[in-house]
Amino acid sequence: MIDAKLPPLNALRAFEAAARHLSVKNAAEELCVTPGAVSQMLKVLEQHLGVRLFVRVNRGIFLTDAGRDYLPPVRNAFRQIVDASKRVAGSQDSGVLTVSATSFFASAWLVPRMASFRDAHPQIDLQVVTSNALVDFSRSGVDVAFRHGYGHYPGLRSDHVLAVAMAPVAAPSLVERLGLPASAAALVAWPKVQDADRKGWSLWLQANNLTEATLPTGPSFDDTALLQQAVLAGLGAGLLPAAMVAPEIEAGRLIQLAEETHIEAFAYYLVYPEATAEQPKISAFRQWVLEAIGSGVSRSHPR
Predict the structure, then answer these.
(1) CB–CB of 10/43 below 8 Å?
(2) At 35, which CATH number?
(3) What domain range is 108 assigned to?
């Protein structure tokens, strides 16, 4: 049951618009009503609350202290309504499914397979947006995301997609200074550029039966492209997907320091909110992804 003391919605809309523009006239134009109607709604709201929200100076309006305090929660409430409406509208089994992925993963894995998804689900249109940053599902409009990491994201469900070969690489300037390592063991002492979780190098060394004497050090990046740029700048050796750095190695801009290694836990995952996991279009995309990698069985990591 809605509380009878809730202010009129139209009055709240008029308040938010007038506070944003600091103009009754501009608020009226945005809301497609007359300035007199906006003024009346503001008066109703002030009477309802028992406080003044605006002061009128000549032909302008300004927020009172009460108005400034009231504006953020009102604005946030409208944003929550918009977000909730988007989620409800996007819950159908048709329409647009927005997929976030890194540029590398989108071009190397997703795009070449999209025709297969279209043939299997012609009622769902994929919209691919590229980003290296973690997605705020509540605000971005993204439905699912592919991310490279360890698959543990609070409040999200993730499915293991594939582990790619990781290659240790460095800029020629760094190799010239330190010399080409004779073996993987020589990399223990090298300066390193880290992933955001600082686990990639440790896992790579473990996979090669090596351990570091100290905890991993060096700058870290949550953006794979930035990590690659740091390696190119000579800040340290970096661990990057072999297919991603192959063109740089071929062009001589990077040098591979040791054999590439598959690290099963350090992989690409399909990530999506727990709250929307059972939406038909998300379920359809998830099932298609698992089938596309040759596995009908999910290795799911909730929360």
Answers:
(1) no
(2) 1.10.10.10
(3) 95-154+274-302
